[in-house]
Amino acid sequence: MSMKLPFFKNKQEETSAHTDLENIPNHVAIIMDGNGRWAKKRALPRIAGHKEGVNSVIKIVREACKFNVKILTLYAFSTENWKRPKPEVEFLMKLPKEFLHIYLPELMEKNVRIETIGDFDALPEHTKEAVQYAKNKTADNNGLILNFALNYGSRYEIMQAIKQILSDVDTNKINVDKLDESSFSNYLYTKDFCDPDLLIRTSGEQRLSNFLLWQLAYTEFWFTDVLWPDFNEEIFQQALRDYQQRKRRYGGL
Ligand code: IPE
Ligand code: IPE
Ligand code: MG
To answer: Which PROSITE patterns match (predicted)?
Structure first.
């Protein structure tokens, strides 16, 4: 006689049972931190950590597609990261091209659209070229929006918005009295995206490091000590499940 008891479910069933597909954050933003420390622990150069971090990126992109996340914003390079040694900056600037060279066909197949936020013009030519090619190629895809924050700084973004608003007031394109939170948001890099629902930061640091200061006003934060190159599907799902337990109140009851 065979009797199937509900508590003898296999692992796969257990996972899908716990990660409720109905309450998935629309927009997940991740501060991918800890590459350098991952390498240091292995007595490797910091760039080895960045290279390994690319594997985590594709793993999480696949997972985001699987769970029907609408927007995945990944903090890849901040406006402050230019302070790092030149060889490290140069290596980081080559990573988008390397990532896209390997994974663009898969991203196309998965219907992923590539976007960026940040001061794009100030990136090296070769970086811009590779990323722009991918943006154009994926422009008509309507699946996951994979949004890389590249040369992104929130204070810079807000300053640029203010300057543009002042200039638009000057030329009568907008009326100051009509300016509100929603029209202000239209001056930010993120104008086409909803605010993040969930922010993840790896590596144990609990700070924003100039990331999406305006947009994260009501976002749920989730921190882990895991270093970015060790981040994986299981930990991502843990973050999703924890998000699902949160009660968002937006100041109400
Ligand atoms: C994150 O890892 C990647 C970037 C900031 C580009 P780090 O390079 O900051 O790694 P840690 O924080 O030094 O370990
Ligand atoms: C934030 O990490 C930027 C990115 C992940 C791209 P950092 O490593 O630059 O942040 P801090 O310096 O520790 O605050
Ligand atoms: Mg860091």
So the answer is: UPP_SYNTHASE
